[in-house]
Each structure stands twice: as C-alpha cells, then as structure tokens.
Amino acid sequence: MEERDLLLRQDEDEIELDELDLEERIQEQQERLVEKALLLLENKQYADLREMLGDAEPADIAEFFDELTEKQTLVIYRLLPKELAAEVFIELDPDQQEYLIRVLSESELKETLDELYYDDTADVIEEMPASVVKRILAAASPEQRRVINELLKYPEDSAGSIMTTEFVRLKKDFTVGESLEFIRKVGIDKETIYTCYVTDPQNHLIGIVTAKELLISPLDKKIEDIMTENVIYVKTLDDQEQIAFMFSRYDFLALPVVDNEDRLVGIITVDDAIDVLQEETEEDFAKMAAITPNDTEYMKTPVIRVWASRIPWLLLLMISATFTGLIISSFENSLAAVPILTAFIPMLMDTGGNSGSQASVTVIRGISLGQVEFRDFFKVVWKEIRVSVLCGVTLGTAALFKVMLVDHLLMKNADVDWNVAVVVALTLLATIICAKIIGCSLPLLAKRIGFDPAVMASPFITTIVDAVSLLVYFTVAKQFIPQMR
Amino acid sequence: MEERDLLLRQDEDEIELDELDLEERIQEQQERLVEKALLLLENKQYADLREMLGDAEPADIAEFFDELTEKQTLVIYRLLPKELAAEVFIELDPDQQEYLIRVLSESELKETLDELYYDDTADVIEEMPASVVKRILAAASPEQRRVINELLKYPEDSAGSIMTTEFVRLKKDFTVGESLEFIRKVGIDKETIYTCYVTDPQNHLIGIVTAKELLISPLDKKIEDIMTENVIYVKTLDDQEQIAFMFSRYDFLALPVVDNEDRLVGIITVDDAIDVLQEETEEDFAKMAAITPNDTEYMKTPVIRVWASRIPWLLLLMISATFTGLIISSFENSLAAVPILTAFIPMLMDTGGNSGSQASVTVIRGISLGQVEFRDFFKVVWKEIRVSVLCGVTLGTAALFKVMLVDHLLMKNADVDWNVAVVVALTLLATIICAKIIGCSLPLLAKRIGFDPAVMASPFITTIVDAVSLLVYFTVAKQFIPQMR
C-alpha cells in the first residue's frame, strides 16, 4: 500500500472525524498515530518516524508505547529528541520506566536525568526497586543527587513531595528589563516562568511577579514596585489534597512552598494540582464503594490485586451484616405467625440504605469541598431531619397506596390488610428518618475523630441502617398486628 | 481596643497558626479577615478597609460578603478598585449578583461590565431573571451585546459555553520583538497572555506560541519560525467534561476553540477546566448516590430542594424493590418450613449488593476516565468473573466456618446444620459472581445505548442484585434442604 493509499485512507477518514465527539476523535487520532508509527517502524523509516513523533504530545507517545515490545520501546526512545524523550519518560508506566533505566547506557541515562525536573525524578525513584534506584543515583550529578535526596525526605501526599525546585527567583531591586533579560537566560530550564518569586538574601519569599505584569510594565520599573507582597503560600508538610483545592478556589497557575523558617524551597504548578485532584477523586470513589484505593488503571491491574483491594471490605461488611441476621432470628416466631411480613424486608432495607447513602454522600462531599464542618453538626442533622420527614411521608404514603391497591385489591393477597399496610408505611417513615440522621452524622463524627469521612459511605451506612430498619419494623409490627404479640 | 490591641492579638495568633493544617489555616485567616473588615466597616474606616481588601483574594472577599447585609455589600462593593470588584462579582452567589445589578447605578454597572470577561458576563446572565438581564444588556456597549449574544447561543456544557473570547492573536510574519510590543499594548485586557494564537487572514488557527517561547527567543525571529503548528484544538460543540480531561492528559494552560469552518473563536483556560472537573465530579458522586445533581452548596440549598433532588430516585428504587418482595412471597411456604433461612437474607443481600457496587463503581470510573470502552466488554466481564470466583470462594468459606463454628457449635442453634451452611456458602459464591457480572456490564451497556453510566451505580445494582441473590438462595436451598421440597 504505502504512502498514497495511506493518504487516500486518511482523506476518507477526515470526513468521518467531524461526526465524532471529542473523546472519540482523540481516540481515532491516537489509533492513526499508532498505525502510522508502527508502519514506519516496520519499514525502518526512522527519519520519518522521528519527525512524526516530534510533533506528537508526550501523553500520546506514551500511549503508543503500550503497543510496543520492549525492544521496540528502546528503539523509539532513542529516536526521540532528548527533551521530548524525557517528557515521554514521565508519562510511561513504572514497568516501562524500569526497563528503560536498566537498558539505557549510562550516558543516555545521564541525558534523560538532565532533562527531567527534579520532582519527576524523585517520583520515578519512589516506584523503583533498589537496584534501579542505584543506577539512577550513580548516573546523577552530585547536585542532582543532593536535591533528589531532599525531595525524597518529604512524606507522601505532602506539598514537599509534589513541588518542583526549578522556578525563577528575582531580586526586589531588579528592573523589569533586567528581569526579562534574566528570564531569557535561565527560563528554558524552569518548569514555569509565568510566576516569578522575589526573595531576600536569606531566601525568604517577599513577593511574586507574574510574567504578564513583567510584559506589560515599563522596562525601567523596579520589581519591588510591581510585585504582589501579600502572597498566599503553603508549607512543605501541608496536605496535597488541601493544596489542590486552593488552586480551584483561587485560580492560581502556581503556588510557592516554604519551609519551617519561611524560606522558599519550591513551587507547585497547576498541572500537578490537577493530577492530585484526579487522584484524590478516584480514591474517594473507591472508598465509597468499599474498595482499597489503588493507583493503577483497572484494565492493567492483575486479578489478584483487584481481589485484594476488595475482599477485606466485603468480609468486614459480611460479618457486620450477620448481626442483622440475629435480629431476624430473635423475631423468628413472630415472623412465622405473619409470614407476609418477610416479603417487605428487602424493600424496607433497600429504601433505608438508599436514604442513608444519599445523606452520607452529600455530607462527605460537603466535607471534602470544605463546605461542611463539624461545627455545623446540629444544623446538618436538623436539615436532614426535615428532609427525611418529607421523604418519609412521601414514600410512606406511596407504599400505603401501593400495598392496599396493588397487593390487597388487585392481586387479592389475603394476608395483606390495613394493619400490614400501616406497619409498612410507618416503618418507612421511621427508618428513613433514622437512616438520614445516621447517614449525615457518621461522616462528621468520623472527621471529628480524625478518620476519613469517605469510608462512612453507602456500604457501612447500609449495613447499619439494615439493622435499624428491621428493629423498627418488628417493633412497629408488634403494635399493630395482633398475631405477633 | 483598636490598632494596638488588634496587632497584639494577631501576634498571639501567629504562633498558633503554625500548628494548624492548611485548611484550618486558610479558614482561620479568613475569619480574621472578616473580623477585621467588619470592625473597620463599623468604625467607618473606609480607607483602611479599602486597602486591606485590596490585598485580599477575590474568592476570600466573596466569602466575606456572605457575612454582610445587602446594604453593607453595596458599600463594600463600591469601595473596591474596579478590577478587583469585577473579580469579586464573579465569585458571588447569584442572589448577591442580582441584588448588585439592581442597585448599582447605570454607570457603575457599565464599569463592572467593562472589567468582566465576556464569558463571565454570559454565565451571570444565564442565572438571572429577565428583568435583570434587560438591565445588563441596556448597560452593555453594542460590541459587548453582540459577543454576549453569540456566547449565549452555545448549549450548556459545550466548549462554546465555557470559552473566553479575549485572547492574544498574532500574525505569522510578526517578529518576536513586535509580538512582545503587541502584547504590552493589548495584553492587559486578555484572560491569558501565556499562550498566543497565530491566525491567517481568514482567521484560521495556524499555530500557537507560548509566552515562554517569546521570552527566550531572539527578538528578530519570525513567529512562523518558532510557532508550534500541530495544535490540539476543540470545537465549539465539544463536551466540557471531555475537554477538562484533555487538560489533565496534556497539561495545557489553555486550549483553542474553533467553529465548524475551523476559524478560531475562543480559548478555554485551565482554571475553567478545573471548575468543570470539580462540577462533573460532584455530579457523578450525586448520581452514584441516587441524587439529582444540583449545583448549589448543600448548606445553602433549601430543604424542599434537597427533598426534590432525592425523592424521585427513592420512589423509583422502592418500587423496583417490591419485585424482590414478590420473590419472597412466592417462596413463603418453603420459608415457613425452614424459618432459619430468613435470618441469612440481609447478609446475602448486602454482600451481593456490595460486590456488585464494587464492580460497577470501578467500571463507571474507568469509563469516565477513558480507560474502559464498550469494546473491552468481554475483557472486563472475564476479569470480573475471575475476581468474583476468588471473592466468592473466600467469602463462602468464611461464611461456612462462621455458620458452623459460631451459630451451630458456639450458640447451639439447633436449626443450623451442615445443609444450611452449605446453602449459604454456595449462595454467596453464586450471588457474588452474578453481582459482579451485572455490576460491570450494566454501566458499559448504559454507555453503549447513550445513557449515563454513573446512574448504574450502587442503588440500581443493589436492587437488581437483591432479586438475583434471593432467587439463587431459594433455588440452592431447594436442592439441599429436604423440608423445602
């Protein structure tokens, strides 16, 4: 086929592209990139391949690497321009990174390390086995080793662990013109030049200047006259999730990080904040579904690890649920007297669980977003009580009609009478109120005692509410149904 | 008290601040800001107040507005420097915005409109009643009206609805020096100057240049020699959630938006992308808890609206759950013969529901993140089958031992024997396998037929799996327990 056919095919496809949505378009373009790249690789058209990949985004090239054998990975990695190679390297899976570190020559490894930002190198090192870490540190310069070691000391999920140390530092007596000249010299190696940091001789942060301000101010103005002095900063040990929320609250492109002596040690850029937001969101989703969070993609996680992340919670919840069984056992005789009551158990348990989950997820998200605090406890509970009375009355009434109209009249179920209908309706009302109170208060209490509120989501709430709903059910039934006494 | 006392108090507090985590620190600082501002307002020290607020972040000032009466809001709004006032305006609640629009004089409203970006004005207009919209459009210049009307035509959640039209446009034959000069002139009114867009005379996007490239390139270089031609762009009707994911995939600061004729019409900036990510995340959490998404904060949402967002789902799920009741009814006689079986119903239903939710939430998130597609259907199901066999065997064995050791031996429950234990264990195994298959396949099928996969989360899966687990339970019981036949 070759060139001409490929071009023709491409033209045909162009037309279709317009009909796809963005996600499908990106995927289609990605597939074409892979297809063409594999063809060029097969035909050993390395110059063309290099040119084609040179125009592609690092994330797309990394995805292409998933389709390659290890040897092909190495061939392509060596083809890429140095800077792009380093950008692709960061996007690869740890397995692929490990392979490359093992097979690259020491000088190639040095080149990659020179292009990587220190924080990225530290992230890679954290994922590697000891022998690979040794190779990396051996190839690093003394200065690189020093900074990387510093970064590795910060605890996981702290500001220190996600910050970069490559930023532009200005002095307050620079003019705008001198600053622009300075950026021209040092800017190329910095992760961002769009926020510049003004420090005093002791390295304390005294202000920031944005590139926008530099670009629109007269060249002879002093930095101290245009800098913003009231700078929002974070500390090295601050929690990454809270930092990520600051980006969304204040629309920053970067945030400075200071140490305990208020010296500027690094910055966090918005792209890292987005990654943190995503990572924490996925963790919250996992916890809410009773899964131990895990940062590899589902499709790439081995079955045994998927099992390991799910089984402890299932086991714990199963054991908790056996207590609900005890409640049923203890009312066994009453149930035997009025067997129709058993038929309503699933509906009552499910509705209770759903009502509780609604409240708990709402409150958990409110806590996560900083909109709900423990001191709002009584306000939240009072709100949920009012909501639950409304929900309970609506559902109770609906259930009353359903039981009498459908079960009693339509299906002529002789066991179902007004007594049963009233018991079901009242149980619903009481269960929903209890469920919503439990659902909204447990996450707040968890937060208060330093637990993760997200764990108090649907599965736990459901288990607790199940027991409550059965207790309510049998208690109410005893009042209204003569045979149960 | 005044100045000195206030300063002293502040010093005391400084020490404590260090012990707080970031979230608490921000909150504490916010409370101090509010306290001081209220004091200054009370004492009518407007100049000091103006200076203090001038240093604060718009988001913090907007939160401060929540503590004020409407009249105070107006006083403070008038005190703020024009640009800051507009930034604060955007962060306010719609009620507060509406109040200000109604009470500001026409010339004040004009000033605010001049400072707002068009996309922000369009967002405000979408929330306002007709009479307020009229006021805004009357105060707008003909050019402002034209652009705002254009923006309002784009559907909600599309690229067009979140893009801004204020960006820097360069020509390919500009030099770097000319471009910097141009930015110095027009940059102040642009939402970002960090990515500049190169267009041809027909306004087609032909390349981009970052401010970093401009700042580190020789002044006499031509833009066409330094611009990136292979530009990733989106279309006006593309979905905002998919766009937001592109920001996290490619680490962009801004993305260009083109119309159907490939003409550049706007850009989307990373701060808007973060807002979209957050908004969509909250929507997904709500859907997974069977709540209709709602973009006001929980604490500010009236009880009746909370009820309205929850009750349709509770009702729907309650009605679905009554079918599970039918299954129990139809096995009523068997249950009456072996009443102990009822005691295991909650545990079996809960475990089934939890297993199903784990699979469904995992797959739903995978779909959201673009990691799982419909074409992976069989791979996903096969993976979940293997995981579920492992989980089922583990939990089944645990249940077998628990029933025989605890219920039979320890608690000497005569009704519990090997038959019952085996029935429970086998039911668990079968239920978990069914639950995980249902849990992983329904979201994929929903996606396939164009439904939102997030709705196929815990509540729906639980309801379906409840029915399945009971059917399995009674079927297995009939095989092993002689009294049931």
Helix content of chain A: 55-70%
Order of strands, main sheet of chain A, comes to 1-2-3
Shape label of chain A: elongated
Question: According to CATH, what is the topology of the largest domain in chain A?
Answer: Tetracycline Repressor, domain 2
Largest interface: A-B, 124 and 124 residues
CATH class label of the largest domain in chain A? Mainly Alpha
- Percent in strands of chain A: 5-15%
CATH architecture of the largest domain in chain A: Orthogonal Bundle
Helix-strand category of chain A: mainly alpha
In angstroms, what is the radius of gyration of chain A? 31 Å
Euclidean distance between termini CA atoms of chain A = 86 Å
Instruction: Note the quaternary state here.
Output: homodimer
Q: How many strands appear in the DSSP assignment of chain A?
A: 6
- From N to C, what is the helix and strand string of chain A? HHHHHHHHHHHHEHEEHHEHEEHHHHHHHH
Instruction: Give the CATH H-level superfamily of the largest domain in chain A.
Output: SLC41 divalent cation transporters, integral membrane domain
The residue ranges of chain A in which pLDDT falls below 50 over 5 or more consecutive positions are 1-13
Main beta sheet of chain A, described?
3 strands, mixed
> What is the arithmetic mean of pLDDT of chain A?
87
Number of helices of chain A: 24
* Tally of structural domains of chain A: 3
